[in-house]
Amino acid sequence: MRNILLAMSTVCLVLSICFIASSQASDQRVVNIGIVIDGPWERNDEIAGMFMQELLALTEGEFDVRFPEDKFIVADGSNAGVSEAIDRLLRDRGINMVIAFGVLASDNACRREGLPKPVIAPFVLDIELQGVSFKDGSSGVENLHYLTFPTPIERDIRYFLEIVPFKKMVFLVNKRFQDGIPNLSVRAQQIMRELGVEPYIIEVDRSIDEAFAAFPPDVEAVYVTPLIHIPSEEFDRMVQGLIERKLPSFSFFGVFEVERGLLATANPDIFPRYTRRIALNVQRILLGEEPGTIPVTIPAEERLTINMETARAIGVYPDWSIVTEANLIKEAREEIERVIDLNDAVREALAVNLDLAAKERFVRAGTKDVSLARSNLFPQIELSALGVRIDEDRAEASFGQQAEQTVTGSVGVTQLIYSEPAWANFSIQKSLQRSRESERDQLRLDVARNAATAYLNVLRAKTFERIQKQNLSLTRSNLELARIRESIGTARTAEVLRWESELASNRKAVISANAQRNVAEIALNRILHRPAEEHFETVETDLEDPHLLLSQGRLMQYADNRWDFRILRSFMVKEAIEYSPEIRGIEAAIAAQERARSSATCAFWQPTLALRAEVSSIFSEEGAGADPPSLSLPPAMSELFRDPDDLDWSIGLSATFPLFSGGTKFAKRSQALEKLTQLRFERAALAERIEQRVRSALHLAGASFAGIEQARLAAEAADQSLDLMIDAYSRGAATIIDLLDAQNATLVAGEVAANAVYDFLVDLMEVERSIGKVVLQMSDEEREAFFDRIEVFFETFGNQ
């Protein structure tokens, strides 16, 4: 209803413009055009409005074209009603031209003789069956011009059979068309039988239930002709009924019916192109051309479109040759809930990537190396226990010094007071840990870049697949055009065969593009640690993505000219050197080696100091020798030979200094110095490589950004050239080679235009990687701080 109101508003607006313009165009020839439409239909006003707008735009400044509201007649859908409406307009002296806007109206207009004024019949379905005059490509009848395109029923049935095999098919026809032009259904039955299909012609009046009741029980498919007389709600009920009956359906009318639920069609929405051609031919008539001499054939466009939601609902799965060629609508399964954009891909990769997870465990293990090094600086406490049993005679002979069974225990504590190697190892391990963390950060940047690049490659592959499908559809249309030219004698069979060869090559290209898309999706799933062929939906990324570094044009404003771009490159190099994890990693390695060199030098004069304390006790003595022999000694002697108790303790301080080790100290110091020098050279070389990487990445990104607009302009020019060439080819004014060249140029230009955007985005990801940042994951504050640093750098550079 909303579309109907919008369309009616458009017509009223056009009529209002005509009325206003009439007061301002008294010096222009006034042309009043009457329109007859077969009967009520929800798209009548929309289509008529398109025609009016096209004609007014074409004739502006030349003619004062008007569409009187009372001469816009919607008949009752019957032959008699249409005939009466055309008679009325032909008798009306205030009407200069009549447009028979409908199948019945066009048929009625073409059957008339002695037309007093120009009459245009845009919807002639079959010249031969309707008995319409055709002479040298035009009507050959004074004041009569009509338009026709090759009846697509045979082509449609062939397509239908490729999608799903069947033997028996219902042919739903508009009862009013059937009553008015009965020969059309006769011809349709003949075509279907020639293709091995048994047809059942079923007329549809106002109720679809009556049509369903007439369906034979063994019907396998349904072909739907234009049922413009039934209400929209009734059409939707028909679609739902076909789906519930698991019956595949094919639309004669076009893609807008497939969008409403029919399975397939080979026609795009013909009306924009049709109304444009009608308006152009009306202009030719107004400029003085005889209507009966204007060419009547309009090449049929074709674009196989399949509603995949309907296909799944009825259990139809077209094979690869169909899927790769067709335009698939509602392809995304409802059960596919996984929808990711560029930012999601990067965030998910950083969270679940297995390579990054493994590196994180490597870093965590490294913290234990630091703990181990630190542990040597703390007290080392040892507990021990010992149980000993010796033979009895040895115990007796020991005179109580060693029992037959003895249990002892001890506790010892060692504390390094000062050890240069231990402290050096602790410092070195902390530096090495920072190096390991830098390795992880490097991998994190690589994973982020790889995820972003893989996502962009998926978008690129999907775009290329779409372009190849469009090219395939265009080739098929040109093949049909060549067949038309062959049928009227303006082309040879070799020309048709050349297009058939091109069609086969294009199909191969579509299959290859589909494979490349699958490969790109698998690569992204691998980075995201997902099942290799898990389905997902993508969100298109453009240059205005708020997560990108160049959003709102803030970055590229610094590349407007060579001077600013040079300053920007210098800033990015400074930023990269400062934040690069590679630089941080090698600086940590240098710090570790500095400490190793210092320790090797200290080894020449610093000893190792340690404190050692130990306490031991005899817990048990049993058996022979447990009790020392009793000796009778004078009291004075007893004091000198007292029995020791069971507890012993000791404490000591040790100092160790290797006095001579065969030259080891000199070798270690020299080695440490050489390794330190090596690392410093490596750091300088790394800085140069980073600078090269940043400057190269920025130059490539700048070039690819500049190429986006040029590639777009080239694609638009190629499209326009192709349209002109198709028109020239249809009129015999261009050769097949000319058209092939134009089509190939359009294909290449389209791919280049798509590549230009994705190439730039990939280059931008490389710029971000080179400066050591995951810009997609930056907070707003970090982003602002980044641009603040750019501003400060530009101001400082400008002052210099």
Provide a descriptive summary of the structure in words.
The structure is a single chain. The longest helix has 68 residues, at 420-487. Among the domains are: 2-148, 3-Layer(aba) Sandwich (Rossmann fold); 153-266 and 301-329, Rossmann fold (3-Layer(aba) Sandwich), CATH 3.40.50.2300; 545-583 and 690-799, no CATH class. It is an alpha/beta fold and 800 residues long. 56% of the residues lie in helices and 14% in strands. Helix 1 (2-22) packs parallel to helix 2 and helix 15 (342-352) runs antiparallel to helix 18. It is elongated. It contains 25 helices and 19 strands.
Number of helices: 25
Q: What fraction of residues sit in β-strands? A: 5-15%
**Which structural class best describes the helix and strand composition?**
alpha/beta
In helices, the fraction of residues equals: 55-70%
Radius of gyration: 45 Å
Mean pLDDT: 84
* Strand runs, count: 19
What order do the strands of the largest sheet run in, or round the barrel if closed?
8-7-9-10-11-12-13
Low-confidence stretches: 1-26
* Gross morphology: elongated
Major β-sheet annotation? 7 strands, mixed
**Euclidean distance between termini CA atoms:** 68 Å
Task: Please provide a brief summary of the model.
The chain is of the alpha/beta class and 800 residues long.
